[in-house]
Amino acid sequence: MGTVWLRAALMTAAGTAGPRVCDLQAGQSIEGVFGVAGKRLRSFRDPSKGQYLELDLRDVTGVIPGRVWDNADEVAAGFDVGDVVRVRAEVTQYREQDQLVITAVETLAMDKVPPEQFIPASPRSLEDMERELWSRIESVRDPHLSQLLLDLFGRAEFYKDFIMAPAAKRIHHSYLSGLLEHSLQIVSVLEVSMGADMNRDLLVAGGLLHDVGKVEEFSWRGAGDYTDRGRLIGHVVMGFCRVREAIRRIEEFPPNLGLHLEHLILSHHGRQEYGAPVVPQTQEAVALHHADLYSGKVAQVMSVSEGVRDSEGRWSGYDPVLGRFIWVPEDDGALPRETT
Description:
The chain has eleven helices and eight strands. It has helices at 72-76, 126-139, 143-153, 156-164, 178-193, 200-209, 214-217, 228-232, 235-248, 255-267, 283-310, and strands at residues 4-5, 29-43, 51-59, 62-68, 84-94, 97-108, 218-219, 225-226. A five-stranded mixed barrel has the order 2-3-4-6-5. A two-stranded antiparallel ribbon has the order 7-8. The longest helix has 28 residues, at 283-310. It is elongated. The model is unreliable at 1-15 (pLDDT under 50).
């Protein structure tokens, strides 16, 4: 049967996911909803046959390749990488790998499909994290920083994005609400480690705002990926611009306070080779950088450790990002004793 481009004729309801990638088996006929993680037109070996469409389709459980053999140009023009599509397909095997041979495709509106269908969510309760966020905001006594935080987080569209965005595409907190979780962790670390003469309110504001550019850097709907602005500009600069605009909306915001907060955002990666336009040059900026590093590194180790537990092993493979193996000890808390 030739491929058919469908806009409304597939039978599955828009909000119904259908089978998950991890549950697919060769021989099935399926109708399912997936994010488009990759899309490529390929030429057949016989040039007279034209091209076929090669897809990478994903949900929260994994990625599966898809092939559209007929009318590839027409089908490919109907959606982009990052879109959500509903497909009708046969599950087949090629070289011992499952793949979908697709016979119908329909693009779905992003708001019709919950993002949890494609990206895992934070293990923490979103409701609990929202309460903690507002508690942190309300704890800021400096009137200008308080007004700044209320102005930013009081904007409905930004707030909705901030509490849902991942903190990264991978590496650490790469799940829904990961940005919120990461930001709260940083403030918690700063609260227990800041020096007595540090500006506490500035550090709370810096911890909550240091990564706000990530609401524009990533798209967490559909397949999830960097946005064009995210790749071309990056979250550090976009966050700096967003905070600077908010500062300018507040009358008589102290110039040095605004300058210091902007410095925290621009320097929080710590080193220029790691993406910081400037290195930390105040005690608060140094503290924020190390709190950010702590939160990210511990999250990386926890993620690797979870993979080891899932495999019922004790050691991870060599992790090139961490530059080491990770050991997960027995749960009884007893360390192995050295023998002589």
